[in-house]
Amino acid sequence: MKTKSPSTIDEYIQSFPKEVQTILTNVRNTIREAAPNSSEAIRYAIPTFIQGGNLVHFAAFRTHIGFYALPSGNTKFQKELANYKIGKGSIQFPLDKPIPFDLIRKIVKFRIQENTLKEKKTKAEQIETKIRRNSWW
């Protein structure tokens, strides 16, 4: 039987044991603090913060917290992430070690800058396309 996916981040967090709930709440609050203009959603069945597109995702697993900052977030902070298991766009923070909230904050702020630049570039490209369509030459 398939379990129902949570529809809110609160529901997601409440589905875990108390100790993990505390960690997830602290991760969520750290992201909120670093990205006060972001919105929250459940995407891919995990908590997601959105600001100019997907900002970051996080999730709990049996032995770690998964943090997903897209490949660029991992590349930018490669040196600081050396002690963690990382994938193309994922980071694993072991549950039996302190969660690096300062690093999470830095990554979120970097992703905000990245999404803001992407938005500006997209708007500039749209304006350029309109100008080309309306030009006489």
From TrEMBL:
Residues 21-112 form the YdhG-like domain. It comes from the Bacteria. This is YdhG-like domain-containing protein.
